[in-house]
Amino acid sequence: MVGQFERNKDTVQEITESAATHVGNIASIITSAVRDITREIGDGISEAVEMYEASQRAKEDGGDESPGQRLRGDHEVTPKPVIDPDTEQR
Predict the structure, then answer these.
(1) How many distinct structural domains can be found in the chain?
(2) Which domain holds residue 36?
(3) What's this model's pTM, rounded to 2 decimal places?
């Protein structure tokens, strides 16, 4: 027969094991969340750096106008040469 002390010990042991399992699961959830958040922040920063570098390359390639100027159409356009088919050399 199991005595009172043994039953109490088993109860405390079961509660402790259950609590440890739950704490471990919660820690795992938090760890995953921190990892996912860190990854998203890193991806966002990488995209921002890529956009910045692309804008710098565009400026170096002679793109002095802002994106708004290009959309509005208030920038200079170099006319294309007109070739008269009658005077074209063959």
Answers:
(1) 1
(2) 1-52
(3) 0.53
